[in-house]
From TrEMBL:
Residues 423-522 form the Peptidase S33 tripeptidyl aminopeptidase-like C-terminal domain. It comes from the Bacteria. It comes from Glycomyces mayteni. It holds the Pfam family Abhydrolase_4. Keywords: Hydrolase, Signal. This is Alpha/beta hydrolase. Residues 1-19 form the signal peptide. One of its GO terms (molecular function) is hydrolase activity. Gene3D superfamilies: alpha/beta hydrolase. Belongs to the peptidase S33 family.
């Protein structure tokens, strides 16, 4: 379970005896919630910054020179907001924040950043240098842990071990051929996990953990930071936060970059089926690359699935222990988030195919994490269930969308996803099964036009596994004023990864509001 350590000053309040929340979404949310945000802004007029406890923040991790210099300048703080904006004087929650001050004297303002998830820590993202120097000169880079994440009242509930085991057991199985025992294990594991969460967490806190309230929190932060308008960079699920902010506060946007765009429409099963197709595209892209390398263990794109399965099966037989083919497939899937990892992934698979297995598991685990990534830290977590007791993912995804409440819908989705990707598809759909019985459900608007907002810049990769390019195209069409920058390559997200064709126009937009040309397409860069 991944957790972010921060200074004790950022400790959160316990969540108990909370008040209910509702929103009608006619206009920009319920009138009570709008009034509640205004009330909080009158009270929260600034952020009290202090030096961060770097030992606690980095947990003794060794930093390189650039990381250490960045860390020395970090400042930590928090703001206090109501759990329920319709009851602004009720119980409060502290939202942890970190800031790296702009390096130029004449700064433009603050740049809020979010790495994705749900469940990703903005505090962790902003604690590392990952943006172009021109951006960090112009902006205070500010990261925050959304409510329910990390140091902001981290949501933890229930044990997911039984459900995790059930999904692992059927990860690559044809969903139409499951045994009664496998079906029962899936249903029981999912129900037990969501049921334990309902028992262990206050139900009204679960009702208020969703993205609409995160967008309201961000509006309070904007004002507390002293910015007249918001400048925001959101990756992956962070683009969903940005779209909800555009829905609620279009006139408060100065500049917004949404990279790896999440769809706002549909249930979690629509998301799962889109991701299944996305992972298959990314896997086939990798296979095509691999076939250009001399020692590639794959014979053709058509046989790639079977050959990968054979490699992993032999590894399981030789290595033994608790390692499963499903677990290794999940590591391969995680490796597909970055094109920069392709050469290393090819070598790891080639070594395993040749029978060299001594370091295979460790090498694959390294690739699934940060090893070989072009960005200083991965954008955790990607918008897929991690199935490791991180309830914050489910707490947001299950509540944000109108999801089916019966098992049959998830089986149908798993069958459709399996048809798109026999390697990865079914496991993705099954992973969302707790949403069928999740205790909170208050769906957000399914379409956002952002009418009245400044031009938003969207970034999409044609081979993005987790947020398929079609989602970026759809969001660009729905938004009243948006430009889509296309990276014609694979991997998840593209900005600040060294692709000059992407980085230069997006950076110019953030700093000087120069909007990239409509239809800009950037070629793949693997070297």
């Amino acid at each position: 379970m991944r957790r972010t350590a921060v200074p004790a000053a950022l400790a959160v309040l316990a969540c108990a005896a909370l008040a209910a929340c509702g929103a009608d979404y006619a206009g920009n949310g319920s009138s009570k919630a709008r009034a509640g945000v205004a009330d909080v802004q009158e009270r929260v007029t600034s952020v009290d910054w202090e030096a961060c406890d770097l030992q606690a923040m980095f947990r003794g991790r060794e930093l390189d020179a650039a990381q250490a210099a960045w860390a020395e300048a970090l400042e930590c703080g928090a703001i206090k907001v109501p759990v329920d904006y319709e009851d602004p004087g009720g119980l409060q929650v502290h939202l942890a924040m970190v800031r790296h001050p702009a390096t130029a004297a004449d700064k433009t303002g603050s740049l809020l950043v979010n790495p994705g998830g749900p469940g990703g820590s903005g505090v962790e993202l902003a604690s590392q240098p990952f943006l172009p120097d021109a951006v960090t000169a112009a902006f205070d880079v500010v990261g925050f842990d959304p409510r329910g994440v990390g140091a902001s009242a981290n949501l933890t509930c229930g044990s997911e071990d039984a459900f995790d085991a059930a999904v692992t057991d059927v990860y690559t199985a044809d969903p139409s051929a499951l045994t009664d025992a496998q079906t029962e294990a899936l249903e029981t594991g999912a129900k037990d996990f969501s049921g334990e969460c309902a028992q262990e967490e206050d139900p009204v806190f679960l009702d208020n953990i969703g993205t609409m309230n995160v967008a309201r929190d961000m509006e309070v932060m904007r004002a507390a930071l002293g910015d007249d308008q918001l400048t925001y960079l959101g990756y992956s699920y962070g683009t969903y936060i940005g779209q909800m902010y555009l829905y609620l506060y279009p006139h408060k946007v100065r500049a917004m970059v949404l990279d790896g765009v999440m769809r706002t429409s549909g249930s979690v099963l629509d998301v799962a089926e889109g991701q299944a197709a996305g992972f298959e595209t990314a896997w086939q892209d990798f296979a095509a690359y691999c076939l250009t390398v001399e020692d590639c263990p794959l014979s053709s794109k058509e046989t790639a699935d079977a050959e990968l399965t054979a490699i992993l099966t032999r590894a399981q037989e030789r290595v033994g222990g608790e390692l499963t083919v499903a677990a290794m497939l999940d590591m391969v899937a995680q490796s597909l988030y970055s094109e920069a990892k392709w050469p290393a992934l090819e070598k790891v698979l080639a070594g395993a195919a040749a029978g060299t297995l001594e370091q295979f598991v460790q090498d694959l685990q390294d690739l699934a994490g940060d090893e070989g990534s072009s960005r200083p830290l991965r954008l955790p977590p990607i918008p897929l269930p991690r199935r490791d007791s991180d309830a914050d993912f489910y707490g947001v995804q299950c509540a944000d969308r109108d999801n089916p409440g019966h098992f049959r819908a998830y089986r149908d989705s798993a069958e459709a996803a399996y048809g798109s990707s026999a390697l990865f598809g079914a496991g993705i759909s099954w992973s969302y099964l707790p949403c069928a019985t999740w205790p909170a459900d208050e769906p957000n608007p399914s379409k956002v036009d952002g009418r009245g907002a400044a031009t938003a810049v969207l970034v999409g990769n044609t081979g993005d596994p987790a947020t398929p390019y079609a989602w970026a195209e759809s969001a660009a069409a729905d938004l009243d004023d948006a430009v889509l920058v296309t990276y014609e390559g694979s991997g998840h997200t593209a900005y600040a990864l060294g692709h000059e064709c992407v980085d230069a126009p997006v950076t110019a937009y953030l700093i000087g509001l120069t909007v990239p040309e409509q239809g800009l397409r950037c070629p793949q860069e693997l070297g």
